[in-house]
Amino acid sequence: MKQEEILSILKEKQAVLEGHFILTSGKHADTYIQCARILQDPKITSLFVSELLKEMKDLEIDLVIGPATGGIIIAYEAARQLGVNAIFTERENGKMTLRRGFKIPKEASVLVVEDVVTTGGSVREVLEVVNKQGGKVVAIGLFADRTGGKIDFKIPTYRIFSKEIQSYEPENCPLCKKDILAIKPGSRGLK
Ligand SMILES: [Zn+2]
After folding, report:
1. Whether residue 27 has pLDDT greater than 60
2. Which helix (H) or strand (E) is 136 found in, with range?
3. Angle at CA 153, nearest 5°, toward 72 and 108?
4. How close is the Cα of 5 to the center of ligand 1, in Å?
5. Distance from the alpha carbon of residue 144 to the mean position of ligand 1, in angstroms
6. Neighbours of 96 (CB within 10 A)
7. pTM, two decimal places
8. 20 to 30 A from 74, CA-CA: which of 18, 46, 139, 172?
9. 150 Cβ partners below 8 Å, 6+ apart?
10. Rounded CA gap, 87 and 63, in Å?
């Protein structure tokens, strides 16, 4: 799929909004990403996952893992298309961990997926969990990368949408200076 096609779907589904936004952190930005708007649509989720998997077709993947919550649906769909299992990590006392009896077999080739990365913190924690269990991460698949591809996990990483999104302290926000009304999107889902 071409980037323009992907962007037009993202905009149509309001998963990517352009304007002037107040983020959960209090910072301002000109672009807002809400992946849940894509993940609510199984057909588009399936399409985006198949686009990611096309890039990985030469890899052998034994297991898919993603961090709760955004990673769960993508992991499930990727696993469904690959014919393998999907598991997820979640936080326990603030620490990313495997619960529910999930195990990663030693030497398993693992695909890590996530919906949105901003700093990559959650993905790095998942990588750590996989490594500790003796699995080997062979690829990372992301629906949206807010660093525009600057983030480097030292593992082949594939992205559906990638854009470096600047955020500003309100006092330094160029959009505020232009007197454009700032909107606070009604969700805590922004990362
Ligand atoms: Zn502003």
Report:
1. yes
2. strand 136-145
3. 60
4. 29
5. 23
6. 19
7. 0.91
8. 18
9. 164
10. 8
Average pLDDT, the chain: 94
Which residues carry a binding-site annotation for 5-phospho-alpha-D-ribose 1-diphosphate?
A: 114-122
Which residue carries 């901003």 as its tokens? 118
Structural domains in the chain?
A: 3-177 (3.40.50.2020)
Report CA(19)–ligand 1 centroid distance (Å).
Answer: 10
Cis amide leading into 147 (omega within 30): no
With cut-offs at 50, 70 and 90, classify the pLDDT of residue 24: confident
Beta bridge partners of 96: 91
Q: What is the pLDDT of residues 2-17, one digit of tens each?
A: 889 999 999 999 999 9
Higher pLDDT, 188 or 42: 42
Tell me the CA–centroid distance for residue 6 and ligand 1, in Å.
27
Distance (angstroms) between ligand 1 centre and the Cα of 24 equals 13
Residue 185 Cα to ligand 1 midpoint, Å, equals: 13
Query: What residues have a C-beta under 5 A from ligand 1, the ion?
Result: 28, 173, 175-176, 182
For residue 151, give both structure tokens. Answer: 């983030």
pLDDT in tens, 45-95: 999 999 999 999 999 999 999 999 989 999 999 999 999 999 999 999 999
What is the bridge-based pairing of β-strands 136-145 and 109-117? parallel
11: amino acid identity, one letter: K
Are the C-beta atoms of residues 114 and 67 closer than 8 Å to each other?
A: yes
